[in-house]
Amino acid sequence: MVYCGKPSKSCEACRTTKTKCDKGLPSCGQCIRLGRLCPGYRDVEALLFRNETNKTVRRARYGKRSDTVSELVSPYTNSYAEYGVIPGPGPPPSSARVLDLPPSLRDQAIGLFFHQLSAEPGCINYIKPVYRTFENGFLEDLFESIGLAFMSASTSGNNLMSEAWKKYASVLRSVNTALGDMGSATSDETLIAVLLLALFESITCDTPRSLRSWDRHCDGATAIVNARGTEQFQSELGLKVFYHVRDYLMIQAYQKRVCIPRTILELACAADAVDPTIDIAEKSLFHINASVCSLRHQETSTNADPSGLLSFAKCIDEEFENWVDTIPDHYKFTIVPDNSPDTLNGLYHTYPSFAASRIWNIYRCGRILTQEVVVRQLLSGQTGLDPWSTSSQLQSSRATTAQLCADICASVPSFLKSGSLRAATGHALLWPLYVVATTTNVEPSTRSWVVTELREISRRTAVLQGMGLADALSMKWEITLWSKNARIETVEDDNMEW
What we know:
It comes from Rhizodiscina lignyota. Pfam families: Fungal_trans_2, Zn_clus. Keywords: Nucleus. By secondary structure, the protein is mainly alpha-helical. It folds into 3 domains: about 1-80, no CATH class; about 105-280; about 285-485 and about 490-498. The chain has helices at about 10-15, 30-35, 45, 55-60, 70-80, 105-115, 140-155, 160-180, 180-185, 190-205, 210-230, 235-255, 260-275, 280-300, 305-325, 355-380, 385-410, 415, 425-435, 445-460, 465-475; strands at about 1-5, 50, 335, 345-350. The protein has a two-stranded antiparallel sheet. About 40% of the residues are buried.
């Protein structure tokens, strides 16, 4: 093994042209500016040392030779390996020299999919170890479709996005075929495919049509997990996929002001009972948030009782307070003073992991929405409270909400400052930021900051939903797509209001 010195971390294109590379993901800034496809980055640690044994033997036999094609294209293959997707075994090498060719566009897209979305616990990292064992094979087409969408957004390539949608449509047909067969309809592969179809809609979401399609995929996933029953919890994969569905349904219920289906709550309890690895904090938080969904649904009823809703909301808020008091140390975050323009209120948080920031923001969103119900009921004047008590509780509720909103905003800069923001992280930040922007009495400066951050996250991660939310929030207070008065979907939905 020979030490080769510290290699450059720049992408191949920037190294070739000797230009400064900002090492952005999924594509560096230079490549985005020039409209070219960024070839990715090398595995720097793997390049520090090189096995020279075979090369030494060749020198002894044939003398020194010039650089080979494989050495010239190694940055492409190293970038491919960095994504964690290793090509399957090929035929044994012949006596002729074997050339290591750059990966195909499909390979690059699949590699980018895993690089962007399976890097952290809590993402879809459960897929990579098992997807090659599935029978139908349409998951790889979905990986390619999502990867092409990432590439298209980072290079402004309309042809790539067109190809991504073609793959998506092809997989959708395959999934519909699978759903018609009793054996494959409830398989792990089919359920994962439905979740990834929903994810594709989130990544490419720039019109209300995508949001409605995402909603339909969530309904499809609900039907599948209901049909799978408790037997799905007999495998680790079955548990992880169910938790993925459960989290999607919580967001869906929040957006539409509906209850999480009773069957899902029962399955969640069954999963909690058999999963030895269940995180107690996350488990209890889901059930508290399920109560928040129920509270918000009850509020939409014409027969809602303000006094009863206020009491229910206060009970839920007390559960949130107890949850914070019992959260494990490995979720604790650090407050960092910083007065740069990237931060709000002169500080930001650093978290021990992506999973820690995610669970904190789930808590904050749920509690903010609970406090919003408290404020609305107090302002209704129908709770039976005297004016002094009403004023005092309003002040307390608004102060709590303001702090929770500030904490969500403080959770964002550390990931943007890291220089390695990936789609999985950026996607998880969109809903919390949207909740902040649509909170009653939010400061205009805070709302403006949120819109800016949504655009930046979208630009850096190629998740177009962030740009769509930012555009919608710039024009109106909140997305009214799920309102009971929203018109029926038509072919003109691309132009309808969010």
